[in-house]
Design brief:
With 330 residues, the protein is α/β, with parallel strands linked by helices. 38% of the residues lie in helices and 24% in strands. Helix 4 crosses helix 5 (107-119) and helix 5 packs antiparallel against helix 6. Bound molecules: zinc ion.
C-alpha cells in the first residue's frame, strides 16, 4: 500500500510524505518525500521497487523532475531503475553509487571478502554460507541494468527544485557514504536512515578499512551543528527535536561500547561471541533463536563497536589459527 500526506507547506514549498509498505519486518514502511516548489518536484528515496512509487507519483502528482536516494540500501534505491528508464535524473552520493557499481562489476569479489571477515571473526563457516547465500538487497541491485546512469554528488553539492536549494550533507555511518539533504534557510533536513525516531540505525561493519561507528558519531555531530528544526527520516515518525534525538543516539552507542568492554572483561573473545552476549532489542528469546539474517546484523554491529574500540586503543586483537580474539588493553 502507498499513502501520502502533506507534512510541510510554507512560502512556495510543499513537502509530501509518501509511505510505502516494504517486506522488512522491523521497518514495515519507508517514508519517501516529495519536495514540490514552483512546477518542479523532487522525490527523496524510491522504495524497494516492489510497489511502484513512480506510478503513484505519476498518477497523483504528475510525475517528478528529479530523484535523490539517501544511500544504497534496496528500500531506498530499489525504485530508481524505473525512474531512470523513463529519463528522470537520479542522484545519490558519489561514494554510494560507486559502491553499487563495484558490487555489480564483481559481486563474487565482495561476497568472498565479506564472508572472510565473518569467518575470521568466529562466525561458524556453515552459518557464514547461509548468511550470504541470498542477500535480496544486493542481488536485486546487482541485476539492475541502468544504475550506471545515476548521477553521483559530492558533499556540498546542491539540487535545486523551483526556488528551493537542497544541499548534500555526507553522513557516513549507516553506509560508508550515506547522504542527507539540507534546506538551510528553512532548517529542514532529509536524513534517510542516519537518524531515526524510535529505533537506532544499524551501523554495520561492511569493510575493514573504515571505522563506521566513528564515522556515524562524527556524522551525528555534523548534523547537530547544522541546527535543523525538523528531520525527515526514511522510517517511522518525523523528528521534531533533532538535538534531543542525536543526544539519545550518542548515549546509546556509549552504553553499547561500555557493554562490549564489560563482555571482554571475561577474557579474549571473538566478535561472534561478543555479539551473542550483547543485548539486542529483538523479539527472539536467545541467541540460538536468532535467524541467520539477525545474526548477520548483530555480528556486523558488534564488529563496528570492536573496530571503534580497537582504533581508540582500548582493546587489541590476536589471530589464533585464522580467527581473531579481542582482548582488553590492561
Ligand atoms: Zn538503510
Amino acid at each position: 500500500m502507498i499513502t501520502d500526506e502533506v507534512i510541510y507547506k510554507s512560502g512556495g514549498l510543499t513537502i509530501h510524505r509518501i509511505q510505502v509498505d516494504i517486506p522488512i519486518k522491523a521497518l514495515k514502511k519507508i517514508n519517501c518525500y516529495l519536495v514540490e516548489s514552483g512546477n518542479e518536484r523532487l522525490l527523496v528515496d524510491t522504495g524497494m521497487g516492489i510497489e511502484s512509487v513512480k506510478r503513484y507519483v505519476d498518477q497523483k502528482f504528475g510525475g517528478v523532475n528529479k530523484v535523490f536516494a539517501t544511500h544504497f540500501h534496496i528500500d531506498h534505491v530499489g525504485g530508481a531503475p524505473e525512474f531512470l528508464e523513463s529519463g528522470v535524473e537520479v542522484y545519490m552520493s558519489r561514494g554510494d553509487i560507486e559502491d553499487i557499481l563495484f558490487l555489480r562489476g564483481s559481486p563474487e569479489t565482495y561476497i568472498n571478502y565479506i564472508k572472510n571477515i565473518h569467518r575470521e571473526n568466529g562466525v561458524p563457516p556453515d552459518l557464514v554460507e547461509v548468511m550470504f547465500a541470498k542477500h535480496p538487497g544486493w542481488w536485486r541491485l546487482v541485476n539492475s541494468s541502468n544504475l550506471e546512469d545515476v548521477i553521483g554528488l559530492n558533499d556540498g553539492e546542491v539540487i535545486s527544485i523551483g526556488s528551493v536549494d537542497l544541499r548534500v550533507v555526507l553522513t557516513p555511518g549507516h553506509t560508508p557514504n550515506h547522504a542527507c539533504l539540507f534546506i538551510e534557510d528553512r532548517g529542514l533536513i532529509f536524513v534517510g536512515d542516519h537518524i531515526l525516531s524510535d529505533i537506532t540505525p544499524n551501523i554495520p561493519l561492511i569493510r575493514w578499512d573504515i571505522n563506521p561507528l566513528k564515522d556515524f558519531v562524527d556524522s551525528l555531530y555534523r548534523v547537530r551543528e547544522l541546527k535543523p528544526k525538523v528531520a525527515y527520516p526514511a522510517h517511522r515518525s518525523i523528528i521534531e527535536d533533532v538535538d534531543k534525538r542525536i543526544s539519545e543516539l550518542l548515549e546509546h552507542h556509549k552504553i553499547r561500547l561500555a557493554e562490549v568492554l564489560n563482555i571482554l572483561k571475561k577474557g579474549p573473545q571473538t566478535a561472534y561471541e561478543v555479539a551473542s552476549k550483547m543485548t539486542w532489542d529483538v523479539k527472539f528469546k536467545g541467541w540460538d533463536e536468532f535467524p541467520p539474517s539477525q545474526k548477520y546484523f548483530a555480528v556486523a554491529e558488534a564488529l563496528s563497536h570492536l573496530k571503534y574500540l580497537l582504533e581508540e586503543g582500548k582493546i587489541y586483537r590476536e589471530n589464533r589459527d585464522g580467527v581473531y580474539y579481542y582482548s582488553l588493553v590492561e
